[in-house]
Amino acid sequence: MEERDPGMPREKVVTVQIEGGRARPGPPLGPMLSQLGLNVKKVVDEINEKTKQFEGMTIPVKIIIDTKTKKYRIEVGIPTTTALLLKAVGAKEPPGDPMHNPIGDLPLEKIIEIALQKKPQLLSKTLKAAVKTILGSARSIGVLVNGKDAKIVTREVEEGVYDALLAKYEEEWEKEE
Questions:
Q1: Per-residue pLDDT tens for 108-164?
Q2: CA distances from 64 to 7, 13, 73, 134, 155 (A)
Q3: 30: which of 25, 112, 115, 128 fits an S-S bond (Cβ 3.0–4.6 Å)?
Q4: Sheet (strand 72-76) strand order
C-alpha cells in the first residue's frame, strides 16, 4: 500500500455552471462550499465579481480548493463565441436564415473585443487571425459588421484596411495570459 506524502496539498475541484454575475449562496454551490469549510459569501462575491462581464450568459466556473489550508482559486471559463456575439447584438438565438435575415450589426471594435476575450481558447497566433475567426462565426449567425456581410469585412481585414485599428489592440493581444 502506497503512503501519501503528508506535505502534498490535497485539492478538490468544484465545477459549476453559473449565469455571469449571478452566483447565489444557495444550493448546489453554498452547501458544497460550506462542507469544504469555505466562507460561502466571500467565494460567491468573488465569483460574481469575476463573472459580471458575462452577465446574461451561462459560463463554467471552477473553484479549486486546497482541503488542508482552505485556500482556493477561481477559474472562470469563457462563453461560446456565438453566445458572446448574440449578447453583443441583444439577440437570444440565431435566426433560421442568417444570410437573408441578419440579427444585428456590430462595429469591428466589438469583434476585436470578443477575439481578445476568446484568446485562451483560440488557436490563432495573431490578433488578425483571431478577428477573422470571430468574423466567420458572426457571419454564420447573421451578424453584420460595420453594416456589411462579415465575409466582406474579413476580406478587408486580409487586405489591411483595418491594420491601424488592429494595431491599437495589438499590445493587449500580446500580453501573456
A1: 999 999 999 999 888 999 999 999 999 999 999 999 999 999 999 999 999 999 999
A2: 18, 5, 5, 31, 43
A3: 25
A4: 11-19, 58-66, 72-76
**Number of alpha helices (DSSP H) and beta strands (DSSP E) in the chain:** 7, 5
Full-model pTM: 0.72
Topology at the third CATH level for domain 11-76: Ribosomal protein L11, N-terminal domain (3.30.1550)
Phi, psi of 75 (to 5 degrees): -115, 120
Report the candidate in 119, 28, 24, 22 with the shortest Cα–Cα distance to residue 78. 119
Helix axes 127-140, 150-158, angle to 10 degrees: 160
Give me the chain's average pLDDT, please.
Answer: 89
- Residue 104 has a pLDDT of 92
Strands 58-66 and 72-76 come out as: antiparallel
**Domain layout of the chain by residue ranges:** 11-76, 81-174
Could you name the CATH architecture of 81-174? Orthogonal Bundle (1.10)
Q: What is the pLDDT of residue 128?
A: 96
Do the first three CATH levels of 11-76 and 81-174 match, i.e. the same topology? no
> 96 pLDDT band (50/70/90 cuts)?
confident
